[in-house]
Amino acid sequence: MFHRESGVFKTSYAAEMALYPLPIAKWAVAAFAGLFIVIAPLTLGEYYISILNLILIACVGALGLNILVGYTGQISIGHGAFMSVGAYTAANLVTHLHAPFWITIPAGGIMAALIGAVVGIPSLRIKGIYLAIATLAAQLIIEWTINHVPAISGGVQASIQVPRPSLFGMQLRTQAQLYLFLMFFVVLAIVGTANLIRSRIGRAFIAIRDQDIAAEIIGINIFRYKLWAFAISSFYAGVTGVLYTYYLGIANYEQFQLTVSIDYLAMVIIGGLGSILGSIFGAVFVTLLPILTRWFLEDYGWLFFSQGDLLNAIPNLRLILFGGLIIFFLVVEPEGLNRLWRNIRNYFRVWPFSY
Amino acid sequence: MRKVSITLAALTVLGFTGAATAQQKGEILIGEQCDRTGPTQIVGIRLCAAVQDYINFVNSKGGVEGFKIKVDEIDHEYKVPPGMEAYERDKRDGAVSYMIYGTPHAQALNQKLNEDKIPGTSPGFGISASADGARYPYLFPVAATYWSQGAAAIQFVKEKLGGNLKGKKIAYVFYDNPAGREAIPILEDLQKTEGYELRTFAVPPPGVEMGAQVLDITQRFRPDFVIDHLFGRSPSVAIKEYKRAGYPLSKVMGLVWASAEADIEAAGGWQVAEGYHTMQFAGAGDDYPVRQEIKAMYKSQGKEPPKEMDDTVVYNRGLFVAALHVEAIRNALKANGGKKPTGEEVKKGFEQIHDFTLGGLVPPLKITAEDHEGGGWVQIFQAKGGKFVKETDWIRAYPDVVSAAVKKAE
């Protein structure tokens, strides 16, 4: 993931399939794991961990959407709604059955997967922008249903309070504890995606993305795999919704509206379609950039604005800067941050002897 | 290309290092969320400006018991994750009280506020049941909840229709989201005792097209009174449509988020909305000493008063919220002998707010440990001759019905 050296010639299928083509890859991954799992929660302040937590939750959702958009070539503007399906499933399980998180998280994911697979049915006949509209309809229908069916939404406020998850009788309260809790699922999501893509299913997804007619001719059941893509992707979305619910302590339909679906699409596109690292880059970028631009404007905004105008200028400029940077990065590298990262890496690998 | 990326990297680093600005001594921090860029910016730009003005005004008078007040406003575009980030940041910086902005944010922060022992206010939105201070110890709706608003609306309609609602028809027009529906149970409860006929009309978001509903209301149902519970752009659309359908606006009233000057102007001006009744949880209009003092403060700095002041309804609500926070901090300082207060002490300070009226702008609230709503007071104003004219004094209606609903809510 974080390295590549020359002189790697694969001579067997096993080598081609290997997760770690070189030992250095293993070490790099171990170092990153140590940094983020051990060092980060011990050294960073609560505020910074809370930002990391938001990023972690976004990572799971972005990975899931990337399976659908990046690897299978389908599109969904309904992922916000799939998250709400997971969130409300978990919230109802918690309030009615006092289910622990190791039941609610898979249950929320499976419920979202079922609904996602149903929503995916139009993808068998329509593609591209038409499919986008069909999934948009799903977003609106699910939103409406949650909003109007008290049995799902828990009454007039359409929100259900959920206690924080507990592990071995200890309730996870602090940001650092929640960080490790979320990190566990992010690692699962990353490993799961990496392995999924190497598997028969993942290769079928990629074949469908590249040319669905050709894929059908070589014997891939398009019907089944497109629905699998929707189901798996929605499973991730459902899990994201449950993680949000546990993190915020509440399931609320206003957290999962259309703008959320668009945000996640933005993450996947900015980060890089069809790459795991890209999904993570995208989640970091979309979550962190508004925060960074605000920090920057708060400290240096007085150079351009009077104190009175500043409060109005910060949020508006933040939006402008955010939009501008998205355009900037996409113009510099249309294939996303992941490709940008690879270019930088390739440049430095041969530096200073580039040719 | 490389130059650009180096500059960017440098800027990012600068942002990191500069962000951790330390809080000065002798300063009390209030955290504030705002939405100046999202779907509710029409409220945010004025409300948050008023908060800043009031805090500046308090500081210009020497602060509170020797402490300067600082309010740290962070915009969240009405999205929940940035709102959580904003809260965590103010918590790190040592905020002792928090101004929540937005219903989903109030719900998402409820648990955190309890854990961190920081009192938060959600005036005019949030969770109606949080009026119950025993169950929601750190959440303060402070203004009338949607339930109190619904009850007050019925009482007002009753007065307008001659003291008896038997057989009268009332239409409840609501924005089709949880907040919009929230008042319905109260209206249904009151229907049993008052004997009116109630019909509800949902306006699907974003509520910019409601010709069909208005025709349905004015031509088929023909109600004796209409109660609008709408948000954003939709109140102005509703006013315009009632006018077009020939329905008298003197038989229409808007609950608190359908009642600002901006709504009237967007509907086509005061002559269109003549007669429209509006419900307020903070006094509307310019005739309050605190507004004059803030204008004087601007004058003494050689500046014009900001244009945000022209929309008196929303601006005054900002003053209302800010004033309650300052008052709670003052109470806390009085109780603990002038040390820097903790969130817990400010919570107690909120619960001692009593007969604090700010020259009539704030209702006669009595916030206690049990009642975090402070009574559920509202005032009705009517659009008349280019401004809002006071129709009633501060009223609270059917407190027993409302408190029964609060008790019943889970």
Can you put this structure into words, describing what you see?
The complex is a heterodimer of chains A (355) and B (410). By secondary structure, chain A is mainly alpha-helical. Chain A has two domains: 1-43, no CATH class; 44-271, no CATH class. Chain A has 15 helices and four strands. Chain A has helices at residues 13-17, 23-43, 46-71, 79-97, 101-120, 128-148, 150-153, 175-198, 200-210, 212-217, 222-248, 258-271, 276-300, 307-332, 337-349; strands at residues 159-161, 166-167, 170-171, 250-252. The longest helix of chain A has 27 residues, at 222-248. With 410 residues, chain B is an alpha/beta fold. Chain B folds into two domains: 26-144 and 287-360, Rossmann fold, CATH 3.40.50; 146-280 and 378-408, Rossmann fold (3-Layer(aba) Sandwich), CATH 3.40.50.2300. Chain B contains 15 helices and twelve strands. In chain B, strands 7-6-8-9-10-11-12 form a seven-stranded mixed β-sheet, sandwiched between helices. In chain B, strands 2-1-3-4-5 form a five-stranded parallel β-sheet. Chains A and B meet through α3, α13 and α14 of A and α1, α2, β2, α3 and α4 of B.
Would you summarize the structure shown here?
Chain A has 355 residues and is mostly helical. Chain A has two domains: 1-43, no CATH class; 44-271, no CATH class. In chain A, 74% of the residues lie in helices and 3% in strands.
Order of helices and strands of chain B: HEHEHEHEEHEHHEHEHEHHEHHHEEH
User: Considering the protein shown, what is the CATH homologous superfamily of the largest domain in chain B?
Assistant: Response regulator
Helical content band of chain B: 40-55%
On the 0 to 100 scale, the average pLDDT of chain A is 87
Number of helices of chain B: 15
- Assign a percent range to the helix content of chain A: over 70%
Please state the structural category of chain B. alpha/beta
Unreliable parts of chain B: 13-25
Kindly provide the name of the CATH class of the largest domain in chain B.
Alpha Beta
Rg over C-alpha atoms of chain B, rounded to the nearest angstrom: 22 Å
Biggest sheet strand line-up of chain A: 1-4
